[in-house]
Design goal:
Chain A: This is Exosome complex exonuclease RRP44. By secondary structure, chain A is of the alpha+beta class. In chain A, a hairpin with a 4-residue loop joins β22 and β23 (536-537). Chain B has one domain (25-243): GHMP Kinase, N-terminal domain (Ribosomal Protein S5, domain 2, 2-Layer Sandwich), CATH 3.30.230.70. Chain B has helices at residues 94-110, 134-149, 175-179, 207-243; strands spanning 25-29, 37-43, 46-57, 71-78, 119-129, 158-165, 168-171, 184-190, 195-201. Classes of the chains: A alpha+beta, B alpha+beta. Chain A binds chain B through residues 2, 4, 6, 17-26, 45, 92, 96, 99-100, 103, 106, 110, 113, 122, 124, 126-127, 516, 799-802, 805, and chain B through 1-2, 5, 8-10, 12, 14-17, 21, 23-24, 44-45, 84-85, 129, 131, 166-167, 174, 176, 182-183, 204, 206-209.
């Protein structure tokens, strides 16, 4: 069964290296078609359908399989992912080329291959005796691969003919390369371009829009005028970067001005600098987040960053002159000091294009099929797409991918990918904010789901190995109402020796998610569960998150337990970690638990256990605060949803009960105990969480704000900050303490995950703990899963694997987790903001009292405690006369005409929804009290139409 | 550029083998007339030559002689042209000393040394081309050479390497697979009794996976035995024809 053949490969890596590799050719590789007698049973996994009937193509009416080449796979993956395209043969040659050229596409194609319904088959043609081809003299690698693909296609056609002469199964070769197609047809292989084939699918006309338009012939209708200078090839760029003539950096487009961008040059810390690019030609087709090479312009051409706000509104291709005029307007304020290094893009090192969300701006010409697409992100240029369903897509949120940006085109070319739904529709907007914050939210792929345990599931003998049976303990869980992913449960009991045993039981997710498999990789990629106002984007499939891992009451569940023996002063005498099986006796909400503790009539096991926990928690909390842990505040709100329409009907700030802090206290304790343990065992590769102390300058605003209200805040240590915050109280103004705490929160640094071997500062500032990690929520955070694995290895309950003890891999993982956490936070905020908008849309205009949180040069930031809403009141507007503004940085205060605003001043504002820009609706605030003539508006303005852009003029007339 | 995919989703390795398959093995015995025994083996692109002298009187210092058994002296060397880059390898460098010691351990376990007290058996192995699994090739070549010399042994010693990638044990690693940096295990087995003559691993691998990898290496070593046995029988048949009986 083994035919062997050796061949030589030469590669040049610095010097000349001769690499000899063996390459075995086999005769036992199956063709993937079921019922094929020649290679019966040689194939496994998802295979092709015996009778592929459905794609009714006018070009090839017979049943057929598709065989795409590399470029089709790379560029038309959107089409291939469509459920209408099935029965595709993916050659190993093609797959390898894709793997080398684009990791994201490779991942997508693997997901498709794993999906049984798509019937994609990977044929290992390079190792098949009859389809292997050797590189010929004078033939380059690309040509060889093309030939290999054609040979495989030919072999398939002949092979299938042998198998069933009567049903004429065909393999159709799909390539966009003209020459390749001609050669294939010469050799008798039915071949079409992707466009031809997709257009022939009469049953699925909508597929055409998803085609990427990159064919050279497609775009030559453009005016032949060349707008941009050519990008240099990569080799030249690398040479230039090495010699220092070019600089490499990340391109960051400006949000305010489409003609301006900065390039952030990476390098040594002292070399870190930003280069300004101005003007369309100097930007030279770079798109936000691309890695580019820039050339510095001579000093006499340097410019200053302009403060002008410019948005691209041009519909027409030909107004390049107008652009130049605009560019000139940028170069006004010439001040020698303001000038910054300026450059121009000479080439692109790496494109970082992703599919973008946005809206279609329909072309003025009715019949036109070319339209411009405006992305939601202002930093992304508008994209030209070709579609026949423009009228259907108008007013919808859509996704578009960029295909290329030719030199003679003002805008990049792209293709339509997906229609998300109506603008303003809740589901659409949720989808948009998930996409824009890069939150992976697709349903879990088949490959991932295949690693889930089979239902019905129960604990087996094997599961109980290395596991303690704690099912007899009286364990209960306390969570917010409606929580389905319960990852922690507690118990507390008196021991015979008079001490107390307290246990924290955490769902044993790492038992189900084994390292390295698709499920693990997917969870690692997602990093965290994202909670939006009315939706949860799970990190692990629902079967685990809401069922098998969720520590629900009265069912046996696997857990990871941390058990302390404490005395009645809450001093830890002993700590022990074990994998366990538990059976929770009750799932309580915070309110229910509180009620049990408070009501004297209840004296069952659960209640006494809760009381014991509560008592200990109070001692723990007191001790923690004495050590200098901070109690901070942020205005958090919950929406009350209408049960039918799911529209928000009311807001409520979150309520805190004693039981909240009880659960929190034990979670903190467990996290700290685990952090100590894993750091002890794995000093080099423990995953920990730190919270760096903020630099003193961060506190300036807080100290100044307090001083203006005659309060003193000390910030030298966390302890003194906590104490002075506690002392800061004013009898006349009780809310000031909360405001100060909110401000203090803004001064803090971000807490981050890190690998203990890569850092030496472990301190957690906010919790005043020398070491900390996350252990208690493995269902919703991936970091906890890693910590579980580390701990399991430390206590000998589970086995290790190489990645776990690789600190560089761990550091990479931390980077991803930190990024995902940040993005999840932003997405959550965006979701709250959107729901606030919905709320005010239904509510109309309201006047509310609020407090000034910050004073800016031309605006004040106002917090409205009732809604937890923060907004900015601007005093300068484009088409209004500028009021007299005097800003004092020291106090800080802002004097407008004759009124002075300080931080924490009480004001009254009017809140309304500004929907003048459909794509970016926002909450708008305007001042009502104190009244300043010409600036504030009256509280009862009856004929204010919030949707009318003329609003501003009306205001002026009053 | 993504790194090499050592095991594809379809279950093929870089060179087209499946996880448990060996590379092609070709071997010849009695390649040199002057030596008491000699053999040449090719395992894929790894090529090794083994020569055996003895048992004979102790050469050099008599003090080294063992009163109850024979002294097994093993020397390993590799040709300057054995790897992709031409490199002079002096005798007595760390790697070849270590390899010599390992070979010695292996063959002391297999050769019935107590039959030849106060004498010496020399085994010289040279690697002509290295493409992964040099230790295994050396042991297999030396086994054939010792057999060729007619020195009594307990059993064949068959060696094979194994690695661990994507939760699958790979048998008989090639150079590309070794260079990828995963765990790598070398096993020398006495196939008839299933006894282990030598087991070596220098990377970290969890205990729970060890059995799986060991099993793969042992199965491969048994496959090697089948092949070597065939070579020996063929050689004996040819020799007997020449002798004319």
């Amino acid at each position: 069964m083994l035919k062997s053949k050796t061949f030589l490969k030469k590669t040049r890596a610095g010097g000349v290296m001769k690499i000899v590799r063996e390459h075995y050719l086999r005769d036992d590789i199956g063709c993937g078609a079921p019922g094929c007698a020649a290679c019966d049973g040689a194939h496994e996994g998802p295979v092709l359908e015996p009778q592929p009937v459905d794609p009714a193509s006018s070009l090839c009416p017979q049943p057929h399989y598709l065989l795409p080449d590399t470029n089709v796979l790379l560029h038309q993956i959107d089409v291939l992912e469509d459920p209408a395209i099935r029965n595709v043969i993916v050659l190993q040659t093609v797959l390898q080329e894709v793997r080398n050229r684009s990791a994201p596409v490779y991942k997508r194609i693997r997901d498709v291959t794993n999906n049984q319904e798509k019937h994609f088959y990977t044929f290992t043609n390079e190792h098949h005796r009859e389809t292997y081809v050797e590189q010929e003299q004078g033939e380059n690698a690309n040509d060889r691969n093309d030939r290999a693909i054609r040979v495989a296609a030919k072999w398939y056609n002949e092979h299938l003919k042998k198998m069933s002469a009567e049903n004429h199964l065909q393999v159709i070769f799909i390539t966009n390369d003209k020459k390749n197609k001609e050669k294939a047809i010469e050799e008798g292989i039915p071949a079409f371009t992707c466009e031809e084939y997709v257009k022939s699918l009469t049953a699925n006309p909508e597929l055409i829009d998803r085609l990427a338009c990159l064919s050279e012939e497609g775009n030559e209708i453009e005016s032949g005028r060349i707008i941009f200078s050519e990008h240099l090839p990569l080799s030249k760029l690398q040479q230039g970067i090495k010699s220092g003539t070019y600089l490499q950096g990340t391109f960051r487009a400006s949000r305010e001005n489409y003609l301006e961008a900065t390039v952030w040059v990476h390098g040594d810390p002292e070399e870190d600098k930003e280069i300004i690019l101005q003007g369309l030609k100097n930007l030279n087709r770079a798109v936000h987040e691309d890695i580019v090479a820039v050339e510095l312009l001579p000093k006499n051409q340097w410019v200053a960053p302009s403060s002008v706000v410019l948005h691209d509104e041009g519909q027409n291709e030909d107004d390049v002159e107008k652009e130049e005029e605009r560019e000139r307007t940028l170069k006004t304020a010439i001040n020698e000091k303001m000038l910054k290094p300026t450059g121009r893009v000479v080439g692109i090192i790496k494109r970082n294009w992703r599919p973008y969300c946005g809206m279609l701006s329909k072309s003025d010409i009715k019949e036109s099929r070319r339209h411009l697409f405006t992305p939601a992100d202002r930093r992304i240029p508008r994209i030209r797409i070709e579609t026949r369903q423009a009228s259907a897509l108008e007013g919808r949120r859509i996704i578009v991918a960029i295909d290329g940006w030719p030199r003679n085109s003002r805008y990049p070319n792209g293709h339509f990918v997906k229609n998300l739904g109506d603008v303003g529709d809740k589901e659409t907007e949720t989808e948009v904010l998930l996409l824009e914050h890069d939150v992976p939210h697709q349903p879990f792929s088949q490959a991932v789901l295949s690693f889930l345990p089979k239902m019905p599931w129960s604990i087996t003998e094997k599961d109980m190995k290395n596991r303690e049976d704690l099912r007899h303990l009286c364990v209960c869980s306390v969570d917010p109402p409606g929580c389905t992913d319960i990852d922690d449960a507690l118990h507390c009991r008196e021991l015979e020796n008079g001490n107390v045993e307290v246990g924290v039981h955490i769902a044993d997710v790492s038992h189900f998610i084994r390292p390295g498999n698709a499920l693990d990789q997917e969870s690692a990629r997602r990093g965290t569960t994202v909670y939006l106002c009315e939706k949860r984007i799970d990190m692990v499939p629902e079967l685990l998150s809401s069922n098998l891992c969720s520590l629900r009451c009265n069912v046996d569940r696997l857990a990871f337990s941390c058990i302390w023996e404490m005395n009645h002063n809450a001093e830890i005498l002993k700590v022990r970690f074990t994998k366990s099986a538990i059976n929770s006796k009750a799932s309580l909400t915070y309110a229910e638990a509180q009620m049990r503790i408070d009501s004297a009539a209840m004296n069952d096991d659960i209640t006494t256990s809760l009381r014991g926990l509560n008592k200990l928690a109070k001692i723990l909390k007191k001790r923690r605060i004495e050590k200098g842990a901070l109690t901070l505040s942020s205005p958090e709100v919950r929406f009350h949803m209408d049960s039918e329409t799911h529209d928000p009907i009311d807001l409520q700030t979150k309520e805190l009960r004693e039981t909240n802090s009880m659960v929190e206290e034990f979670m903190l304790l467990a996290n700290i105990s685990v952090a100590k343990k894993i750091h002890e065992e794995f000093s080099e590769h423990a995953l920990l969480r730190k919270h760096p102390a903020p630099p003193p300058s961060n506190y300036e605003i807080l100290v100044k704000a307090a001083k203006s209200k005659n309060l003193e805040i000390k910030t030298d240590t966390a302890k003194s900050l906590a104490d002075s915050l506690d002392r800061a109280d004013s009898r006349t103004f009780p809310y000031v303490n909360t405001l100060l705490r909110i401000l203090a929160t803004r001064c803090m640094m971000q807490a981050v995950y890190f690998c203990s071997g890569m850092d030496n500062d472990f301190h957690h500032y906010g919790l005043a703990s020398p070491i900390y990690t996350h252990f208690t929520s493995p269902i919703r955070r991936y970091a906890d899963i890693i910590v579980h694995r580390l701990l399991a290895v430390a206590i000998g309950a589970d086995c290790t694997y190489p990645e776990l003890t690789d600190k560089h891999k761990l550091a990479d993982l931390c980077k991803n987790l930190n990024f995902r956490h940040k993005m999840a936070q932003y997405a959550q905020r965006a979701s709250v903001a959107f729901h606030t908008q919905l709320f005010f849309k239904s509510k109309g205009i309201v006047s509310e009292e609020g407090y000034i949180l910050f004073v800016r040069k031309n605006a004040i930031v106002v917090l409205i405690p009732k809604y937890g809403l923060e907004g900015t009141v601007f005093f300068e507007e484009k088409d209004k006369p500028k009021p007299r503004l005097i800003y004092d940085d020291e106090i800080p205060s802002l004097k407008i005409e004759d009124t002075v605003f300080h931080i924490f001043d009480k004001v009254k504002v009017k809140i309304m929804l500004d929907s003048s820009n459909l794509q970016h609706q926002k909450i708008r605030m305007s001042l009502v009290e104190p009244q300043i003539p010409g600036i504030s508006i009256s509280a009862d303005n009856p004929n204010m139409d919030i949707d009318e852009p003329e609003r501003k003029k009306k205001k002026r007339e009053k | 550029m993504a790194g090499l995919e050592l095991l594809s989703d379809q279950g093929y390795r870089v060179d087209g083998r499946r996880a448990g398959e060996l590379r092609k093995i070709q071997a010849r015995m009695g390649v040199f007339a002057q030596a008491d025994g000699s053999a040449y083996i090719e395992q894929g692109n790894t090529k090794a030559l083994a020569v055996v002298y003895g048992p004979h009187e102790i050469r050099g210092s008599r003090a080294r002689a063992l009163p109850d058994r024979a002294l097994v002296n093993c020397q390993y060397s590799s040709a300057t042209f054995s790897t992709g880059e031409r490199k002079r390898r002096p005798h007595g460098d760390r790697k070849s000393c270590e390899m010599g010691l390992q070979l010695r351990q292996t063959f002391e376990a297999a050769i019935l040394t107590q039959l030849h007290p106060r004498s010496q058996i020399d085994i010289y192995v040279q690697v002509l081309q290295a493409d992964g699994g040099t230790y295994a090739a050396c042991v297999n070549a030396a086994t054939l050479a010792v057999l060729d010399a007619g020195i009594p042994m307990r059993d064949f010693v068959c060696a094979c390497s194994a690695g661990f990638v994507d939760n699958t044990a790979l048998a008989d690693l090639s150079h590309v697979e070794e260079a990828a940096g995963g765990p790598q295990l070398a096993l020398a087995l006495l196939p008839a009794s299933g006894q282990i003559a030598l087991l070596e691993m220098d990377a970290r691998l969890h205990e729970d996976h060890l059995e799986q990898v060991l099993e793969a290496a042992a199965r491969a070593a048994r496959d090697v035995h089948t092949l070597l046995d065939r070579v020996v029988r063929q050689h004996v048949r040819e020799a007997s024809i020449l002798l004319g009986d």
